[in-house]
Amino acid sequence: MPRADDSDHTDDHTELMALAVRLARGAGSLTVRLRADARADGRGDGGGDGRADGRGNGRPDGGGDGREDGGADGGAEGRGDGGADGGANGGAAGRGDGGAEGGGDCGAEGRGDGADGGADGGSLGVAVKSSPTDVVTDVDRASERWLADELARLRPDDGLLGEEGAHRPGGSGVRWVVDPIDGTVNFLYGLRPYAVSVAAERDGQVVAGAVHDPTSGETFSAALGAGAYLDGAPIGGRWVAAELATAVIATGFGYDAGVRAGQGEVLAGLLPRIGNLRRLGSAALDLCYVAAGRLDGYYEHGLKDWDRAAGLLVATEAGVVVGGLRGRPPGVLTVAASPTVAAELTTLLEELGADDIADLYG
Ligand code: IPD
Ligand code: CA
Ligand code: CA
Question: Which of 23, 191, 223, 260 is at 20 to 30 A from 2, Cα to Cα?
Fold first, then answer.
């Protein structure tokens, strides 16, 4: 919540927001470029086939159809155990055990605006983290490295926390919290959207943030006390559904199978009581979409600071109601909803025992 002295810092917050926007866009461009490079690599060394040993269900000839651009060579990804190479182009990533380089072509993005093109040739370099479904690519790491280097150059006294391990204590009172790709699974599969999320905290409070989606070119931003923006134009106060029964609600699922089972139970109770459901694949954008009135609400268990720091500020500055259950602030459970449906959504989640899932996170 805004503090009493926020107004004293508003200019400062706005400057931090401007930098967050530049950083998120710069890292987003890098992800697009690296995907295009990966695709080019894949073509260079045998494109078009490849995926025979990857996942086995790629298109026999490298596709070349389906996706307008990036997907020049079809095959989803050379995924699967041992899909290390997954075919030169067929696959996005050669994910799976040892799928370090995998096939290329997520074919995903770059569509329409040519934002990102498909990645071929297995250069996405996929590894797994907390579970086999919790993946990270070389592009996530490169994006975070670029953000860290830029921050070290521009604001050497600030601290940094990044999802992929970037950490610097800093001494200025400002700490940057970054998610170099929020929506890695989408990125890997060539789905939209994904985002780069950059937030700045001052003395532990998020005061500025930006969420940039390279697949659409959109940038959401916010500064504490100074509003929320989409590509520089103010957002907020535009709510669609008047009640939960017609509301479009988004959610996400964790990488742990046990947690997902619990999430599924909550969802089963929720589905008949809402208008419809979306699972977009990027928590940062889910929050921004509620801010922009593209969703009526969003909830998810187990978000980390890098997933939600910037998006929550965009949401609160846009007038979205943000919290946890039973009057608590966002914690293990994050709920963000338009003022028109927030109370109903929160009450229903409480009735459905969403707190019990939260307990699974310890
Ligand atoms: C994930 C995405 C996803 C959400 C997961 C997050 P990542 O972030 O935001 O939508 O459901 O909880 O971990 O792993 O792609 O950075
Ligand atoms: Ca994330
Ligand atoms: Ca991430």
Answer: 23
